[in-house]
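job 3f2a | input accepted
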Amino acid sequence: MSDSSFMTLALEQARAAAARGEVPVGAVLVQDGRVIAQDGNRVEELFDPTAHAEILVLRAAARLAGSPRLEGCDLYVTLEPCPMCATAISFARLRRVYFGAYDPKGGGIDHGPRIFERSTCHHRPEVYGGFAEAEAAEILRTFFRARR
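job 3f2a | predicted structure (148 res):
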């Protein structure tokens, strides 16, 4: 599979999250060209403020790996990770993060606290923002427009 195929899967997870009434963010975690975890936000469903797509795939992959460190893994996510997720990504020691839409209000990588640029951040993955940005942003706009 290719980078765009992995992001397509993340976009599918975002659409599935929207169908469940969740903020439409989807994530896919890949290792050695193979999907090892994928999910969308489940905050409302699980009554869990930490049930962001990124956290859910990190948890699933860590269980499979038998380790909290997921070195060599790449994350594809439809929205710039928030500070909580960015910190978890750092702790998991992911190799790369590809994200779709930028999040000027709630982002934690290119916006807000810029977690990976902090002196207290011990691991900084490679980051590629704006990957399938238009489609990821449109999914979010459509979701929020329907709720206003």
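job 3f2a | The first strand starts at residue 26 and ends at 31.
job 3f2a | closed
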